[in-house]
Amino acid sequence: MGSALPLGEPVPADGSLPSGTLVDAAAPFGVYLHVPFCRVRCGYCDFNTYTSSELRGARQDEYADTLLGEVDLAARVLERAGGLRPASTVFFGGGTPTLLPPGDLARMLDGVRRTFGVDADAEITVEANPDTVTDAVAAELAASGVTRLSIGMQSAVPHVLAALDRTHEPASVGTAVTAARGAGLDVSVDLIYGAPGESIDDWRASLDAAVALEPDHVSAYALIIEDGTKLARQIRRGEVVAPDDDLQADMYELADEQFADAGFDWYEVSNWARDERHRSRHNLAYWTGADWWGFGPGAHSHISGTRFWNVKHPAAYAQRLAAGESPAAGREVPDASARLLENVLLRSRIREGLAVADLLGEGRHAVAALIADGLIDGPTALRGRIVLTRRGRLLADAVVRALTE
């Protein structure tokens, strides 16, 4: 059901931001809508999601109205901090948002539109499992204003899907893509590599299948073993083998090569797009430190330098809102050193990189060695920006340590 929430200071019952906080009305504003429901819990998943047997006191059919209560609360909080801004991006994540009827998703989106406004050219994304997307679902989402469908493909190989506890058949991905295209939606597909028993040939087959779908955007994430998950327990008991770091590195390089050959450009370590227009603007807002409000149980937000997060369980979330209280469980205002680390950590992952001028003295001194090691692009660094090479993307954590120690 997701990892533990961070520690932080209490949030006032009315959800007010720290005294003196002012929002920048000209800055982009993202909205994240968390839908925490899944039919089956995947063995690797550490997200804050719940199957029907785990809801205990929360109802899926009441969820849209509950979340809209937080939308109203957010409007009051932001008005006190300087006013409302229209959303430049809206992202329905999960969980599986398409487990809810499209009408419920439309109602949540209408609530955001009515309360904050939504930019005319806003990117509005819905995550979906392939077997929940039909022509009718895609058409109804498009009619509500959704512009983009992010489809959880993960693999095209049946035994890899089984190792990940995914419930869809490989063929259902193509059906979902066709439905999305028919409704006029942009399409992104998500892949995971390094599953137990997955070979490099299995991964190549998945890459070939993903490219053949001709999506606008593709994400490829290395499988990470999170404590407390079913997969972590299986590895600890010796039932399956842990992902091999060298094999995952080979898989990443193969993905980058094949996506480049198919006309995709990397713009973040794990993300590729056909062109700049099809980059995920919502996720870029996270990586560049923009403002967003995350609605729903366990959702995180960032407003004008303050980070806060909601209680995790849907029942606790609903109870807070029913009592007229903020569902926020805690908050923090990172200090200068924490903001520097975060800036390097996030901006170094994107193609535009970060400014050398943003680094402290020791970090700047590390630049020459990182160029020599082939981890950052030399000519770009000499022009004042840190941009990772392909090898640097494989060792991004080591680059961040060198730039911040």
UniProtKB/TrEMBL annotation:
It is found in: Cytoplasm. The keyword Chloroplast does not apply. It comes from Microbacterium allomyrinae. Belongs to the anaerobic coproporphyrinogen-III oxidase family. HemW subfamily. SUPFAM superfamilies: Radical SAM enzymes. SMART domains: Elp3. Keywords: 4Fe-4S, Chaperone, Cytoplasm, Heme, Iron, Iron-sulfur, Metal-binding, S-adenosyl-L-methionine. PROSITE patterns: RADICAL_SAM (PS51918). It holds the Pfam family Radical_SAM. It comes from the Bacteria. Residues 23-265 form the Radical SAM core domain. This is Heme chaperone HemW. PANTHER family: COPROPORPHYRINIGEN III OXIDASE, RADICAL S-ADENOSYL METHIONINE DOMAIN-CONTAINING PROTEIN 1, MITOCHONDRIAL.
